[in-house]
Amino acid sequence: MFSSAATWAEVDPSWPAEPILRFSPGTDSGTFDYFVEEVFDSEEAPILSSANLQLSEDDNVLVQGVLGSPFSVGYFGYAYYQENADTLKVLSVEGVEPTAENVDNGSYPMARPLFIYSDGAIMQAKPQVASFINFYLTFVNEEVLDVGYFPASPEALDAAKTAWLQATGMGG
Q1: What would the mean pLDDT of 16-28 be, rounded to a whole number?
Q2: How much of the chain, in percent, has pLDDT values that exceed 90?
Protein backbone atom coordinates (compact mmCIF):
# COMPACT_ATOMS: atom_id res chain seq x y z
CA MET A 1 0.00 0.00 0.00
CA PHE A 2 3.01 2.32 0.26
CA SER A 3 4.63 1.40 -3.04
CA SER A 4 3.33 0.09 -6.35
CA ALA A 5 -0.38 -0.49 -5.73
CA ALA A 6 -2.39 2.27 -7.38
CA THR A 7 -5.76 1.34 -5.87
CA TRP A 8 -6.97 -0.33 -2.70
CA ALA A 9 -8.33 -3.22 -4.81
CA GLU A 10 -4.76 -4.01 -5.84
CA VAL A 11 -3.88 -4.48 -2.16
CA ASP A 12 -6.98 -6.58 -1.44
CA PRO A 13 -9.52 -7.44 -4.19
CA SER A 14 -12.39 -7.05 -1.70
CA TRP A 15 -11.49 -3.38 -1.18
CA PRO A 16 -12.70 -0.55 -3.45
CA ALA A 17 -10.92 0.28 -6.68
CA GLU A 18 -10.18 3.78 -5.36
CA PRO A 19 -6.76 5.43 -5.62
CA ILE A 20 -4.60 5.11 -2.50
CA LEU A 21 -3.76 8.52 -1.06
CA ARG A 22 -0.48 8.24 0.83
CA PHE A 23 0.84 10.54 3.58
CA SER A 24 4.41 10.20 4.77
CA PRO A 25 6.90 12.19 6.79
CA GLY A 26 9.44 13.96 4.60
CA THR A 27 12.76 12.46 3.62
CA ASP A 28 14.60 14.46 6.32
CA SER A 29 12.55 12.76 9.03
CA GLY A 30 13.89 9.99 11.25
CA THR A 31 10.40 8.46 11.08
CA PHE A 32 10.71 8.29 7.28
CA ASP A 33 14.18 6.75 7.57
CA TYR A 34 12.99 4.12 10.04
CA PHE A 35 9.90 3.27 7.94
CA VAL A 36 12.00 2.86 4.78
CA GLU A 37 14.56 0.77 6.65
CA GLU A 38 11.94 -1.57 8.13
CA VAL A 39 9.47 -1.79 5.24
CA PHE A 40 11.68 -1.41 2.17
CA ASP A 41 15.03 -2.72 3.42
CA SER A 42 16.47 0.82 3.28
CA GLU A 43 15.46 1.42 -0.37
CA GLU A 44 13.62 4.74 -0.76
CA ALA A 45 12.63 4.23 -4.40
CA PRO A 46 9.46 2.15 -3.80
CA ILE A 47 7.80 4.73 -1.59
CA LEU A 48 9.15 7.80 -3.36
CA SER A 49 7.92 6.55 -6.74
CA SER A 50 4.43 5.66 -5.48
CA ALA A 51 1.47 7.59 -6.84
CA ASN A 52 -0.49 10.07 -4.74
CA LEU A 53 2.27 10.51 -2.17
CA GLN A 54 2.33 13.62 0.00
CA LEU A 55 5.45 14.19 2.06
CA SER A 56 5.49 16.64 4.94
CA GLU A 57 7.79 17.43 7.85
CA ASP A 58 4.67 18.51 9.77
CA ASP A 59 2.87 15.53 11.30
CA ASN A 60 -0.28 17.62 11.71
CA VAL A 61 -0.41 17.99 7.92
CA LEU A 62 -0.16 14.21 7.62
CA VAL A 63 -2.95 13.69 10.15
CA GLN A 64 -5.19 16.16 8.31
CA GLY A 65 -4.43 14.43 5.02
CA VAL A 66 -5.43 11.05 6.39
CA LEU A 67 -8.57 12.52 7.92
CA GLY A 68 -9.43 14.15 4.57
CA SER A 69 -10.29 10.94 2.71
CA PRO A 70 -11.49 7.43 3.55
CA PHE A 71 -9.05 6.19 0.89
CA SER A 72 -5.94 7.54 2.55
CA VAL A 73 -3.21 5.97 4.64
CA GLY A 74 -0.34 7.53 6.52
CA TYR A 75 2.21 7.04 9.22
CA PHE A 76 3.59 9.39 11.83
CA GLY A 77 4.52 9.44 15.49
CA TYR A 78 2.16 7.71 17.90
CA ALA A 79 1.62 10.96 19.80
CA TYR A 80 -0.18 12.37 16.76
CA TYR A 81 -2.40 9.32 16.64
CA GLN A 82 -3.20 9.72 20.35
CA GLU A 83 -4.21 13.36 19.82
CA ASN A 84 -6.66 12.21 17.12
CA ALA A 85 -7.61 8.74 18.38
CA ASP A 86 -11.31 9.58 18.19
CA THR A 87 -11.10 10.08 14.42
CA LEU A 88 -8.12 8.02 13.24
CA LYS A 89 -7.86 4.25 13.01
CA VAL A 90 -4.56 2.76 14.09
CA LEU A 91 -3.49 -0.37 12.21
CA SER A 92 -1.90 -3.47 13.60
CA VAL A 93 1.25 -4.72 11.88
CA GLU A 94 1.46 -8.46 11.34
CA GLY A 95 -1.43 -8.80 13.82
CA VAL A 96 0.32 -6.83 16.56
CA GLU A 97 -1.34 -3.68 17.93
CA PRO A 98 0.75 -0.61 18.78
CA THR A 99 0.29 -0.65 22.55
CA ALA A 100 2.73 0.31 25.30
CA GLU A 101 3.10 -3.38 26.22
CA ASN A 102 3.87 -4.42 22.64
CA VAL A 103 6.34 -1.58 22.20
CA ASP A 104 8.10 -2.45 25.48
CA ASN A 105 8.34 -6.16 24.73
CA GLY A 106 9.56 -5.51 21.18
CA SER A 107 6.71 -7.33 19.43
CA TYR A 108 5.37 -4.25 17.61
CA PRO A 109 7.72 -4.01 14.62
CA MET A 110 7.28 -0.33 13.76
CA ALA A 111 8.26 1.21 17.09
CA ARG A 112 11.64 2.82 17.30
CA PRO A 113 13.49 3.96 20.38
CA LEU A 114 14.63 7.51 20.90
CA PHE A 115 18.37 7.89 21.42
CA ILE A 116 20.65 10.60 22.70
CA TYR A 117 24.34 10.24 21.93
CA SER A 118 27.48 11.70 23.38
CA ASP A 119 31.04 10.72 24.09
CA GLY A 120 32.79 10.32 27.44
CA ALA A 121 35.57 12.70 26.44
CA ILE A 122 33.06 15.38 25.47
CA MET A 123 31.10 14.95 28.70
CA GLN A 124 34.30 15.19 30.74
CA ALA A 125 35.55 18.24 28.82
CA LYS A 126 32.14 19.94 28.81
CA PRO A 127 30.34 19.30 32.09
CA GLN A 128 27.28 21.13 30.78
CA VAL A 129 26.81 18.30 28.24
CA ALA A 130 27.06 15.71 31.01
CA SER A 131 24.61 17.73 33.13
CA PHE A 132 22.13 17.94 30.26
CA ILE A 133 22.29 14.20 29.63
CA ASN A 134 21.87 13.51 33.34
CA PHE A 135 18.83 15.83 33.37
CA TYR A 136 17.47 14.09 30.28
CA LEU A 137 17.85 10.62 31.79
CA THR A 138 16.29 11.78 35.05
CA PHE A 139 13.17 13.34 33.52
CA VAL A 140 12.76 11.74 30.08
CA ASN A 141 9.81 9.52 31.03
CA GLU A 142 7.86 12.40 32.53
CA GLU A 143 8.37 14.46 29.41
CA VAL A 144 7.69 11.76 26.84
CA LEU A 145 4.45 10.88 28.60
CA ASP A 146 3.39 14.52 28.44
CA VAL A 147 3.82 14.57 24.66
CA GLY A 148 2.29 11.15 24.04
CA TYR A 149 5.27 8.87 23.54
CA PHE A 150 5.93 5.59 25.27
CA PRO A 151 8.26 5.75 28.28
CA ALA A 152 11.65 4.09 28.35
CA SER A 153 11.71 0.84 30.28
CA PRO A 154 13.37 0.84 33.71
CA GLU A 155 16.00 -1.53 32.30
CA ALA A 156 16.84 0.80 29.40
CA LEU A 157 17.07 3.80 31.73
CA ASP A 158 19.25 1.90 34.20
CA ALA A 159 21.60 0.85 31.38
CA ALA A 160 21.77 4.44 30.09
CA LYS A 161 22.45 5.81 33.57
CA THR A 162 25.20 3.22 34.10
CA ALA A 163 26.75 4.18 30.76
CA TRP A 164 26.55 7.86 31.76
CA LEU A 165 28.31 7.15 35.06
CA GLN A 166 31.06 5.23 33.26
CA ALA A 167 31.46 7.87 30.54
CA THR A 168 31.74 10.70 33.04
CA GLY A 169 34.24 8.80 35.17
CA MET A 170 31.82 8.65 38.11
CA GLY A 171 30.99 4.97 37.77
CA GLY A 172 32.90 1.93 38.84
Answers
A1: 97
A2: 73
